[in-house]
Amino acid sequence: MQQTNSDVLIIGGGIMGSSTAYHLTKADPTLKISVVEKDPSYTYASSALSATNVRVQFSLQENIQASQYTLKILENFEDEMAVEGEKPDIDYHAEGNLFIVEEKGRELAEKALQLQRSLDCEVEWWSPEKIREACPLYETGNYAGGAFGAKDGRLDAYSLLMAYKNKARSQGAVYIKDEAVEILTENGCATGALLASGNTIKAGHVINCAGPWAARLARTAGVALPIEPIKRQIFVMTPAVKLERPLPFTILPSGFYFRTEPGGMILMGKSLQEDPVGFDFSWDDKRYYDQLWPELAELIPAFDTAKLNRGWAGLYAVNTLDENAILGEWPNLKRFFLANGFSGHGMQHGPAVGRYIAEIVLGVKPHLDLSRLGPERILENRPLHEDGIV
Ligand SMILES: Cc1cc2nc3c(=O)[nH]c(=O)nc-3n(C[C@H](O)[C@H](O)[C@H](O)COP(=O)(O)OP(=O)(O)OC[C@H]3O[C@@H](n4cnc5c(N)ncnc54)[C@H](O)[C@@H]3O)c2cc1C
């Protein structure tokens, strides 16, 4: 059995772990950074199973600013992240996000729009007529209108993750295929991890980037996180009618969402109360036929003829206190840092969060003030909810 030493040990090499590794090695190339990843194929990582949406349409300033950061860095990301002349292809499409709103949701939607505008987001209110003008297939019925974010869109999340991973490795981060089975502690401090291979890594800082497995990992150090892995399913179908242009990423008040996918397809999903807690990746088409497709065809009657192509299931790491991220050092275990609990919106926040975690580990002033998302609120039972249109 081997013991190695690192300055920082990151557990989980998804978007959070890889973005953190990139920012740490960029800030200080002399640091010894180890990233332990049990599934380097990322078959089950949420980062590779997401709906890939990036939006500024949140009602919490921190979430808005983290998305703005992503949109900003995407402007020259591919040049910035090239490794030996090889550029990643992130394939960003700013097709816009449209949150369709009922009358009863309008006040909150307008409040969120106001906050977004005050932060210089390109967002506007669309009347039902404006929605039909932009999306003639939509049957806007009794909806009050919609909140539209022009810069929001979709990207290739796997390429984003790989870009961070490859660049972090080129800057010296070492990725290790293994599973952390226990966080090691001494005198109220995290000191490393025991791996499934029997090897240990001792480290000055330990960062939990284990996505849906975060609570299970934290428990090995006696840390109780209110995070549950909850299955969410995605479906992709081809409607008989051909679209003249892509649809915006559209979200209905029920939480049902859909967007265009290359090849004239439509991708959709919806979180439901009955979604099971646990590490269950099974997928079935019943929900699509019983609920999702009928809901879509009600909004877009032209989609009543369609072929289901494929789908998959992934896990949200749901923070059951308030469905928002938990970022920072755990107050009762020094040197144990968390980047966890992103629920359904972490992929787009990977760039900003990785930088933020690197900054607090290094003790420099963070580029964004995300301190309200700190773990103290968990211990003090102070939820920080989104309260707008999402
Ligand atoms: C169906 C679905 C749709 C989504 N849609 C969106 C969206 O449109 N926009 C958006 O922004 N977000 C979306 N999300 C959420 C987003 O995907 C996640 O919030 C984000 O990817 C979390 O990244 P992560 O690095 O924390 O977790 P992950 O990507 O899951 O990475 C965690 C990694 O840790 C590894 N690991 C875990 N435990 C250990 C251990 N003990 N030892 C070693 N390795 C370990 C895992 O193998 C995994 O690779 C969606 C998620 C799902 C499931």
Give a description of the structure.
- By secondary structure, this protein is α+β, with helices and mostly antiparallel strands.
- It folds into two domains: 3-77 and 157-225 and 321-379, FAD/NAD(P)-binding domain (3-Layer(bba) Sandwich); 98-152 and 229-319, D-Amino Acid Oxidase, Chain A, domain 2.
- The chain contains ten helices and 19 strands.
- Strands 5-6-4-13-14-15-12-16-19 form a nine-stranded mixed sheet, sandwiched between helices.
- α1 packs across α9 and α2 (61-74) packs across α9.
- The longest helix is centred in the N-terminal third of the chain and has 14 residues, at 61-74.
- The radius of gyration is 21 Å and the shape is globular.
- The mean pLDDT is 97.
- Bound molecules: flavin-adenine dinucleotide.
- Residues 11-17, 36-39, 42, 45-47, 49-53, 179-180, 209-213, 217, 232, 234, 269, 314-316, 342, 344-348 line the site of flavin-adenine dinucleotide (FAD).
The overall average pLDDT, rounded, is 97
Q: What is the name of the CATH superfamily of the largest domain? A: FAD/NAD(P)-binding domain
Strand content: 25-35%
In CATH, what is the class of the largest domain?
Alpha Beta
Report the major sheet.
9 strands, mixed
CATH topology of the largest domain: FAD/NAD(P)-binding domain
What is the annotated CATH architecture of the largest domain? Answer: 3-Layer(bba) Sandwich
Helices, by number, come to 10
N-to-C series of helices and strands? EHEEHHEHEHEEHEEEEHEEEEHEEEEHH
Termini Cα gap? 49 Å
Number of strands: 19
| Bound ligand species | flavin-adenine dinucleotide
Shape: globular
Helix content: 25-40%
Q: What spatial order of strands do you see in the largest sheet?
A: 5-6-4-13-14-15-12-16-19
How many domain units?
2
Low-pLDDT segments, ≥5 res: none
Radius of gyration: 21 Å
Structural class: alpha+beta
